[in-house]
Design brief:
Distance between the termini: 66 Å
Number of helices: 2
Strand content: 35-45%
């Protein structure tokens, strides 16, 4: 009798942790270069779970605004930056863009969770958007190629 109770309890706890009913926002990526974290700024997002439903609308904020107060992380020309969603469910779709000072964007492909920075020196702004069945979110970060 006791074995059955503990088995049911373990399965129930595992199920609760698997469906993440308490998550109130989309997972953010861990962004790093050579093991050093790169800070990100969150943008608009929507997330719904079993116990929570929330949207944050920052649609008038561009990645240029989002990174204005960041200190850019210094990277080497052509270096790889890791963009990994380690906390929570993996996104169904990811879009990565490089933002230029004039507001134009350029799509950047992630290859095995890595993006490669340009070889030209300068300040680069990146915007990562991700989509799940439960919602969406985006972050921006800046790097200085030296």
């Amino acid at each position: 009798m006791r074995k059955g109770f503990w088995l049911v309890l373990i399965v129930a706890v595992g199920l609760v942790l698997y469906v993440e009913p308490f998550r109130g926002s989309p997972p953010e990526p861990d962004v790093s270069v050579n093991g050093t974290d790169i800070g990100v700024t969150s943008g608009s997002s929507c997330w719904h779970s079993l116990l929570n439903r929330k949207c944050i609308d920052l649609s008038d904020t561009t990645p240029l605004n989002m990174t204005a107060d960041q200190t850019p992380t210094v990277v080497k020309p052509g270096q790889k930056i890791e963009v990994a969603f380690n906390d929570g469910p993996a996104p169904e779709r990811i879009q990565t863009e490089q933002w230029l000072k004039d507001g134009r964007t350029k799509t950047v492909q992630l290859k095995n969770e890595d993006l490669t920075v340009p070889t030209e020196k300068g300040l680069y702004i990146y915007h990562v958007s991700a989509w799940w069945k439960k919602g969406d979110g985006n972050v921006a970060f800046s790097v200085q190629v030296k």
